[in-house]
Amino acid sequence: MKKMKLSTIYLFIVFVILYAPIFYLMFFSFNSGGKMYHFEQFTLDWYRELFHDTRLLIIVLNTVIIALLSSVISTILGVFGAIAIWYVRKNYQKSLLLSFNNVLIVSPDVIIGASFLIMFTVVGIKLGFTSVLLSHIAFSVPIVVIMVLPKLQEMSSSLIDAAQDLGAGRREILTKVILPYITPGIFAGFFMALTYSLDDFAVTFFVTGNGFSTLSVEIYSLARRGISLNINALSTLLFLFTIILVIGYYFIVTKRNGRAVGLGARK
Amino acid sequence: MSNQAIIRFEKVTKQYDEDPPVLNDVSFEMERGRFYTLLGPSGCGKTTILRLIAGLIEPTSGKIYIDGKLVNDVPANKRQVNTVFQDYALFPHLNVFENVAFGLRIKKLKKEEIKQKVREALRFVNLEGYENREIKEMSGGQRQRVAIARAIVNEPEVLLLDEPLSALDLKLRTEMQYELRELQQRLGITFVFVTHDQEEALAMSDEIFVLNNGVIQQRGTPTDIYDEPINRFVANFIGESNILKGRMIQDYLVEFAGKQFTCVDGGFNPNETVEIVIRPEDLEITPPEKGKIQVKVDSQLFRGVHYEICCYDQQGTEWIIHTTKKVNVGDDIGLYFEPEAIHVMRIGETEEEFDARLEAYHEQGVANEG
């Protein structure tokens, strides 16, 4: 019993340490004093200012468009990539492909950003919307692959045999058996790609050009110029948005998992 | 047309890479409307035969005919056969109705027709009213039936069953054996049933193919195979046996366990070394002086329906007896058996040679009597 309590206290402390700075920041976004200490009065001025800043609103829009486009495209690419890896028969080829995929996930964003910058300059792609979109797609694809692949591996190969046995051709096997089966993985991959794209800073910072910016880059440059509680307001909104995404993702996953659990009981 | 074999294998070999072949130069024919069982231990090649018929794998060499047509290059989705898989392979994202309708939807049948056929198939397997159930809500036995309905709704000429009963408990398994047998008779199509369970094979089949190491060891009706196994492997695999070394003195006279006995086998060379099979249930316990062989009881196991008694004779040969009588360990008892209970096997004989010899001495026997 005592052990239980200790672990609960430990957990509580960890969460406090993790969340305290965020709540501190959110708290002062309502401060009329304009400083991060000494709370004077409750105000929504910073938020009002935020919503009158058309430049900032365009940046928000850019960020969302980039995130949605890149995650949709990378989900499509990633799903087919995962299926391709899954189809590879030889084990060493499979693990080689998978390693190539995983290296991209673990390698530092700075390196990926810098190398993309070099590539875009060499190829002659103007830095801006296209370059940011392309690089976001590039770092999202491996994430989708790694989210979808376990679902494929969990699928019994006799399902494919059965579909073939019942007259299904290659295309029907894909659309009527494989894709419906891995749908939870596809959703998970999509949401992962979306969040990665939304909060990416390092890669975007390298490949973005004049006149184009995303939220995280903008917050960074605002913070460099000097502290304004604008940033707090913006960060608060961003945080809330992320929370909503996470909750939405959770609901989709648990709903789907209800099915998956039933599957597990099959044997 | 109806006499023509529905499935024909001509010298079919299947080999993966450099490994020894899973299936080695196998030829056979299967007739329409019969219940065939492929029986053998795991890795004997029985599932390989099934997958070759289904078209899920291609033979390394040899020819496969279905309904008289060469199908080596016909992919699985174009063959008029359907399979019930070992793990049922039901689609978890579809309900019962959609699972059964899967093949019909691919054939793009009309909605009404699909509805009617699915309902009919579900009625055939006693699952009326389960159309809207999810697969995860069904029990093992029910899933089995859904899998069967999904296969037969396509009206295949051949239904392939890959150890479909192995995941069920004993009671349900026995029930399903009756149902499958009955289903086959009602449908009138060819069933090819794969199993490693010899009791299942004996109970259900018109004809059994016993396989080992990628070769068909023996084929025949259940009684043929049980009463006249061709070699040690078949005798051991199908039922329990006492297998003894022996010597054929002349036709109908064999020597084993240090004595000579009359038997009903012939067609051997004089003094040929042979193997003798006597089934444990053909041995009758008598007082020592009345038995053909005298043995000492070594151990006794209660098996429910019968006792399994293990004895040794003076030469130290082990004898297994199945009997409902109880004896005491350490007793001296006699064993009595009819000449018909002795089955003599020639060592290393192939199926063709076995059949030819059987035919020859049966004719001779008839001539002698006349």
Automatic annotation (TrEMBL), chain A:
The record's PROSITE patterns line, in alphabetical order, gives: ABC_TM1
Topology in the lipid bilayer is annotated as: Multi-pass membrane protein
Q: Where is the ABC transmembrane type-1 domain?
A: 60-249
Which processes are annotated in GO (biological process)? transmembrane transport
Its keywords, alphabetically, are: Cell membrane, Membrane, Transmembrane, Transmembrane helix, Transport
Q: Does the keyword RNA-binding apply?
A: no
Which CDD domains does the UniProt entry name for this protein? TM_PBP2
Principal cellular location given in the protein's record? membrane
Q: Which domain of life is it from?
A: Bacteria
What's the name of the protein?
Answer: ABC transporter permease
TrEMBL record, chain B:
Q: Name one GO cellular component term.
A: ATP-binding cassette (ABC) transporter complex
Question: Which SMART domains does its entry note?
Answer: AAA (SM00382)
Supply the enzyme class, top level: translocase
Q: Which InterPro entries match?
A: AAA+_ATPase (IPR003593), ABC_SmlMolc_Importer (IPR050093), ABC_transporter-like_ATP-bd (IPR003439), ABC_transporter-like_CS (IPR017871), Mo/tungstate-bd_C_term_dom (IPR008995), P-loop_NTPase (IPR027417), PotA-like (IPR005893), Transp-assoc_OB_typ2 (IPR013611)
Which keywords, in A-to-Z order, does the entry hold? ATP-binding, Cell membrane, Membrane, Nucleotide-binding, Translocase, Transport
Q: Does the keyword Lipoprotein apply?
A: no
Gene3D superfamilies with a match to the protein in the record:
2.40.50.100, P-loop containing nucleotide triphosphate hydrolases (3.40.50.300)
Task: Write down the EC number.
Answer: 7.6.2.11
Look up the coiled coil feature and give its residue ranges.
Answer: none
Substrates-to-products reaction catalysed: ATP + H2O + polyamine-[polyamine-binding protein]Side 1 = ADP + phosphate + polyamineSide 2 + [polyamine-binding protein]Side 1
- MF-aspect GO terms: ABC-type polyamine transporter activity; ATP binding; ATP hydrolysis activity
Location of the ABC transporter domain: 7-238
List the PROSITE patterns: ABC_TRANSPORTER_1, ABC_TRANSPORTER_2
For this chain, the family text in UniProt reads:
Belongs to the ABC transporter superfamily. Spermidine/putrescine importer (TC 3.A.1.11.1) family.
Q: How does it assemble?
A: The complex is composed of two ATP-binding proteins (PotA), two transmembrane proteins (PotB and PotC) and a solute-binding protein (PotD).
Role, per record: Part of the ABC transporter complex PotABCD involved in spermidine/putrescine import. Responsible for energy coupling to the transport system.
Identification of the protein by name:
Spermidine/putrescine import ATP-binding protein PotA
Q: Which gene encodes it?
A: potA
